[in-house]
Amino acid sequence: MDYLKDTYRHQGKRKLLIAELEKLGIKSRKILDAFQAIPRHYFMDLALDNLAYTNAAFQIGSGQTISHPFTVAFQTELLDFTPNQKILEIGTGSGFQTCILCELGAKVYSIERHQELHLKADRMVKFFGFNARLKYGDGYKGWPSYAPFDRILVTCGAPGIPSDLKDQLAIGGIMIIPVGEGESQRMIKVRKTSDETFDMEEFGTFKFVPMLERRVDYKEK
Ligand code: SAH
User: Fold this and answer.
1) Which residues have any ligand 1 atom within 6 Å of their CB?
2) Domains and CATH numbers, the chain
3) Mean pLDDT of 101-128
4) How far is CA 216 from CA 34, 72, 94, 97, 111, in A?
5) What per-residue confidence (pLDDT) applies to 38?
6) Among 154, 199, 155, CA closest to 173
7) Most buried residue, 30, 32, 98, 109, by CB count within 10 Å?
8) Which active-site residues does the annotation give?
9) CB-facing half-sphere around the CA of 114: CA atoms within 13 A
10) Closest ligand 1 atom number to CA of residue 156
């Protein structure tokens, strides 16, 4: 990974992006600092190097995208976690969001259904020296052997809230999940109030690649 270079030019552009995130309403200084610490361009194709600090989603291979920086920051803020809490992420993708959560001190478990992306993200996590656990598989089922989780973050558009994920959320825990099958999804914050009760709150409309069930490595288009 010697080709990963963080130049003054990258750092300068990153500062501007962070100022933009702040303008868009991200308040947590810690989250903004994590965006400075984790160079987004490391997670993108070299050909896209110049665009890494624009607030947009980009192709990362296997028909998938790295989320908008604002979406990553917004979901992270909604998660409202403290260091050392256990977070399950569904949709590792590039691993950028995974590394942001690690930088903020969380114990991260992350699942990706594309093996190629999973392997690449695993290398990135190790490059930074984080000890997140990454798994290649279907996130619909969650990761029962490490449950319960204090937080669950879904980074793909789900048709509904998978019951296994609800089961694996700790009581008092929070799940952030974009729900909707069409072009766009509603950002939902689910708080588990008892074994069977959940409070739901909605936080606007976003666009995500779909969450696909049981179709590990299935190629879209
Ligand atoms: N957090 C990532 C977002 C990647 S896009 C980033 O910023 O890079 C969402 C990812 O969810 C895609 O890589 C897609 O392959 C994955 N995904 C979709 N359905 C899934 C499922 N059922 N289980 C695990 N991963 C899934």
Assistant:
1) 64-67, 72, 90-91, 93-94, 96-97, 111-114, 117, 138-140, 155-156, 209, 211-213
2) 8-213 (3.40.50.150)
3) 97
4) 31, 24, 16, 21, 11
5) 97
6) 199
7) 98
8) 67
9) 22
10) 9
